[in-house]
C-alpha cells in the first residue's frame, strides 16, 4: 500500500529479513513512495501499469484536500460523503489497473508460482492481495496501519471499538469526550461503515470474474468489504488440530464442525488420557493418539482442584497471596502434564513421520496447552491460535492485541460486569496485572524446553508468532499478526 501505509509494511519487511526470511515485494511501475533498495534478502518484482507517479500523487492529494475541506460533522455529513465518493471511485480505478497489472500478466504469475512462496502479506486497503494469494495457492494475511474509524479492524479483526469510549480514527477526538463528542463519534463510526459498505461494493463483479477459475460454493463471490477472508470460497484443505481438554474443547469442536461442513479433512492430536476429546462412531474426524504416562484421573483431579481453588480462595485484595501460592502449585502440575504431552509427540519419530507424510496445510492450536506451535514448526506449516478465553483475557490482550481498558472492561473470571463501582474498578485493576504476572511466571518455565527443541537459546514468545489468532470471545474473527511463523 502506498503512502503512510507503506511505513507499516516496511517495518514488517525489516523484521522478516532480520529473522532470515526471503522477501519479495510486488511493486507497480507508478509507485510514488515505495523505492527499490539493494538487499540480498529483499527482491522487488516490478510490473507495468498504464499510469505514472503523478496519478498516485493526485489521488492522495485529492483525498487529503477532501478531508480537510469537507471535514465530517453532523452538518456536513452528506456533502462529505458525496465528495469522498468521487475520490474513492478514482482510487478504485487506480487499484483495478494495479490488479490487472498482475492478474492479467500470465508471465509474471508463472514466475511467482515458480518461486514457491509460503505466505502473502497484504495491506487490505489495496484490494487484490487475497486474489493473488488464491491464484498462487498460498495462505495470505493482512497487516494494516489503520483504516478510517477502524472499519477494517472492527469487521475483519473483530477488535472491539465501543463508540462511547474509543475515538474513531481521523475523527480528531480523544478518549476524553463530552456528550456532544460521543454523539459525533457515534456518527463517525456509522458513516464510515456505510461508506465502506456502499463504495467498496463495486469490487463484487471484479472478484467474481477474477475467481471464476477457483472452486466456489456460490456462482458469484459476494465480497463483503468487512470480511476480507472471502468465506464464500471453498478450498478443501488438510487441517491438524492441537486442542485443550475441558471446556476449551467446546470452542475447538465448533470449529471442527464448520471445517468438516466445508469439506476440509481434519485430524485431532489428543493424549491417551484425555477426558473429553473423544471420537464418535459417526465422526469424520481423524484422531491421532499421543502416548502419555499419566491417567485420566490425573486430569480429572487437576480440573477439580482448579475449580475448588477458585471457590475456596476466590481472588480478592485480601486473598491474593494465598490464591497465587495455591495456583502456582496447580500450574506446576499442569506444566509437568503438558511437558509429557509435548514429549509424547516431539520425541516420537514414528508419529512425527506419519504427520509429515500427511502433508497438512495448517495447524490450529489452543495456546492453553503449549507446544502446538512447536509441532507446526517441526512440520513446516503455518499455525493458527484459537481460544475460548483466558483469565483476565491475558492471551487475548498480549497475543491478539485486543484492547481491554481496566476502567471499563471487566477481567474474565473476576465476576465483575461492565457496570462497576469505584471499589470494583480497583479490584479489576488488580486482577489484570496479577494474571499477567501469573502467566508470565508460568510461561517462563518453558524457555529451556523451547530452546532445547529448537536448538537455540530463546525466550518463549510463541504467542506473538501465530499466523492468525482466532478469538471466540469476539465472534471468532481473524486477527492478523505481524510474523508468519516461529523460526
TrEMBL record:
The organism of origin for this protein: Tupaia chinensis
Keywords in alphabetical order: Glycosyltransferase, Transferase
The protein's name in its UniProt record: UDP-glucuronosyltransferase 2A1
This protein's record includes keyword Transcription regulation: no
Protein's UniProt keywords contain Membrane: no
GO MF entries: glucuronosyltransferase activity
Similarity comment text for this entry: Belongs to the UDP-glycosyltransferase family.
Amino acid at each position: 500500500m502506498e503512502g503512510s501505509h507503506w511505513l507499516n509494511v516496511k517495518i514488517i519487511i525489516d523484521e522478516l529479513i532480520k529473522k532470515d526470511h526471503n522477501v519479495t515485494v510486488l511493486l507497480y511501475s507508478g509507485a510514488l513512495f515505495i523505492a527499490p533498495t539493494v538487499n540480498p534478502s529483499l527482491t522487488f518484482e516490478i510490473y507495468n501499469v498504464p499510469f505514472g507517479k503523478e496519478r498516485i500523487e493526485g489521488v492522495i492529494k485529492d483525498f487529503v484536500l477532501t478531508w480537510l475541506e469537507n471535514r465530517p460533522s453532523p452538518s456536513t455529513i452528506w456533502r462529505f460523503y458525496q465528495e469522498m465518493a468521487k475520490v474513492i471511485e478514482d482510487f478504485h480505478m487506480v487499484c483495478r489497473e494495479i490488479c490487472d497489472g498482475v492478474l492479467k500478466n500470465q508471465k509474471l504469475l508463472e514466475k511467482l508460482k515458480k518461486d514457491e512462496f509460503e505466505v502473502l502479506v497484504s495491506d487490505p486497503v489495496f484490494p487484490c492481495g487475497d486474489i493473488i494469494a488464491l491464484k498462487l495457492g498460498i495462505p495470505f494475511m493482512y497487516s494494516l496501519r489503520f483504516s478510517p474509524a477502524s472499519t477494517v479492524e472492527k469487521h475483519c479483526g473483530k477488535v472491539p471499538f465501543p463508540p462511547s469510549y474509543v475515538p474513531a480514527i481521523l475523527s480528531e477526538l480523544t478518549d476524553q469526550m463530552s456528550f456532544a463528542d460521543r454523539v459525533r463519534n457515534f456518527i463517525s463510526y456509522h458513516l464510515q461503515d456505510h461508506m465502506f459498505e456502499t463504495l467498496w461494493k463495486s469490487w463484487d463483479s471484479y472478484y467474481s470474474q477474477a475467481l471464476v477459475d477457483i472452486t466456489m460454493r456460490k456462482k458469484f463471490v459476494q465480497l463483503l468489504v468487512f470480511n476480507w477472508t472471502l468465506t464464500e470460497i471453498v478450498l478443501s484443505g488438510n487441517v491438524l488440530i492441537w486442542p485443550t481438554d475441558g471446556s476449551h474443547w467446546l470452542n475447538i469442536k465448533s470449529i471442527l464442525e464448520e471445517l468438516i461442513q466445508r469439506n476440509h479433512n481434519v485430524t485431532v492430536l489428543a493424549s491417551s488420557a484425555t477426558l473429553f476429546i473423544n471420537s464418535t462412531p459417526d465422526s469424520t474426524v481423524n484422531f491421532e493418539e499421543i502416548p502419555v504416562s499419566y491417567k485420566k484421573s490425573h486430569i480429572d483431579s487437576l480440573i477439580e482442584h482448579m475449580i475448588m481453588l477458585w471457590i475456596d480462595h476466590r481472588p480478592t485484595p485480601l486473598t491474593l497471596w494465598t490464591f497465587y501460592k495455591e495456583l502456582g502449585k496447580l500450574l506446576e502440575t499442569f506444566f509437568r502434564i503438558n511437558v509429557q504431552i509435548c514429549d509424547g509427540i516431539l520425541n516420537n519419530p514414528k508419529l512425527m513421520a506419519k504427520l509429515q507424510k500427511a502433508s497438512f496445510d495448517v495447524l490450529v492450536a489452543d495456546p492453553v496447552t503449549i507446544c502446538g506451535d512447536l509441532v507446526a514448526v517441526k512440520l513446516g506449516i503455518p499455525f493458527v491460535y484459537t481460544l475460548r478465553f483466558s483469565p483476565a483475557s491475558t492471551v487475548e490482550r498480549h497475543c491478539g492485541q485486543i484492547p481491554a481498558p481496566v476502567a471499563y472492561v471487566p477481567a474474565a473470571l473476576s465476576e465483575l460486569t461492565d457496570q462497576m463501582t469505584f471499589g470494583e474498578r480497583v479490584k479489576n485493576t488488580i486482577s489484570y496485572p496479577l494474571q499477567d504476572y501469573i502467566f508470565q511466571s508460568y510461561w517462563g518455565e518453558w524457555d529451556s524446553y523451547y530452546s532445547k527443541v529448537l536448538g537455540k537459546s530463546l525466550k518463549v514468545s510463541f504467542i506473538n508468532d501465530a499466523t492468525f489468532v482466532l478469538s471466540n470471545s469476539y465472534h471468532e474473527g481473524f486477527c492478523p499478526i505481524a510474523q508468519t511463523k516461529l523460526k
